[in-house]
Design a protein that fits this description.
The protein has about 230 residues and is an all-alpha fold. The protein is about 80% helix and about 0% strand. The longest helix is centred in the N-terminal third of the chain and has 30 residues. The chain starts with a helix and ends with a helix.
């Protein structure tokens, strides 16, 4: 009986996460309230509070899924084309810029994820680990703490570029080029290599990849919910 209770609890939690993801996409993080989420699920506020205390707690739950999906799609994009880890890093960061440009609601979600204490700390920890693995051979003199500091710096640059929408003077190509020059120089990447990465990303359909990433996040969440229902 205790097992059933735990399983039901996990199912309720997953239902809340799915509903929150839908609400964030429809209304943005700022425009979504806990009431919006509970109305989608048919659950009470008390049921919500038994799993999450704030919207940020739900966003924290989603951030891990989103980062995993972004890196998975990025690996797929470069598979068979290159094994250059710097180009993999480039693909993942550019993919995120394209995701944010899909809608103002997604821009709002990412802005808050990079701004709120718990979610920004999770991003820093997760990305530091991945970036260290990517750049370890290129930068053997750096320690984990150095990569952490670099992630704080590049995360701030990412946040700045994400919150400014593209316009007639600030096209996606301009945004991507400026972002890569700003971030890769922090990782001591030579200018000729930076130009190579800028040319490389122009060969990839990031607009379609961004759509696939968002769709994949929802498919994953729905699959998780369905698997819990089957138990």
């Amino acid at each position: 009986m205790a097992n059933v209770t735990r399983e039901q609890s996990e199912l309720t939690k997953q239902i809340i996460v799915n509903a929150a993801a839908e609400s964030f996409l429809e209304k943005g993080f700022t425009g979504t309230t806990i009431r919006h989420i509970t109305m989608k699920t048919g659950l009470s506020t008390g049921a919500f509070n038994s799993h999450f205390k704030t919207k940020e707690d739900v966003l924290y739950e989603l951030v891990g899924f989103v980062l995993d999906q972004q890196f998975a799609v990025s690996e797929k994009l470069v598979a068979g084309r290159t094994d250059d880890k710097i180009l993999l890093y480039t693909a993942e960061t550019v993919l995120q810029l394209y995701i944010v440009e899909m809608s103002e609601n997604l821009r709002d979600v990412y802005y808050n994820a990079y701004s709120l204490p718990k979610t920004s700390a999770l991003i820093q920890r997760t990305v530091t680990e991945k970036v260290e693995a990517m750049f370890r051979e290129e930068l053997p003199q750096l320690e984990s703490k150095d990569f952490y500091l670099l992630e704080i710096a590049t995360g701030g640059i990412m946040r700045g570029f994400m919150i400014v929408p593209c316009n007639i003077w600030f096209s996606m190509d301009v945004k991507v080029g400026a972002f890569l020059k700003s971030t890769l120089r922090l990782y001591y990447v030579p200018d000729e290599k930076i130009e190579e990465t800028i040319a490389f990303v122009k060969t990839i359909d990031f607009k379609q990849a961004a759509k696939e990433t968002v769709d994949g996040i929802f498919r994953y969440l729905e699959k998780q919910r369905e698997s819990l229902q089957e138990v």
